[in-house]
Amino acid sequence: MTRSVAEVDLDALAALFEARRSTRAFLPQRLERERIDRILEVARHAPSWCNVQPWRAYVVAGGTLDRLKPELLEAARNREAAPDVQDLPEYEEPHLSRKREADDALMAARGLTGMNQFRAIVDAVMSNWRFFDAPQGLILTVPRAIGPYALVDLGSFLYGFLLALEAEGLAGCAQASLAQFPHVLRRHLPIPESEAVVCGVSFGVADADAPANRCRTVRVPLSELVTHCSSGKESG
Question: What fold, for 22-85+97-215?
């Protein structure tokens, strides 16, 4: 049954936004294809420039995922990164400090706070290419020919998917790391060279007891993100 727009008020939407978090440990419970498609059906209503809907989602699970994981891990160990889009950006302030705070919060949640735990830290990083043990994931692409606006459109679809997961009582984590080895992905998924691999998403049922999932990041105040530009008499 379709709910009317009036039933979904701003407070309910805000609660959904605030509840969503990046989840980095999952239970082995595999989702049924019908349930995944239901979530994707919601996300596909995301806005896009001129309604071109440039995103493409590849759902990976089962034997395909089992074969993909060890090859991604091997590529990571061998430092074979050759992404289709820009790799790790060079952050400047204030973004660098925000990233470091998020990294520190995640390591602290995992109990990894010293270089004497180097091996455990490396294993935590490598878990990206195990899809955080999620039994399914998405690989997201856009056409190379469209250019950067396709990335904006993909972001709308990605956020819609993450919010739909939250509304369904599930969890996910968007990962640039899954796009670092597109040559590996193309060995297992029918991704043409005309599409650029942008990111991936690990998703499923969150492991509520996992230390990594205790991490919560904070958002900067609105004043650091928004500038109101106006002139003349302000309305009351």
Answer: NADH Oxidase (3.40.109)
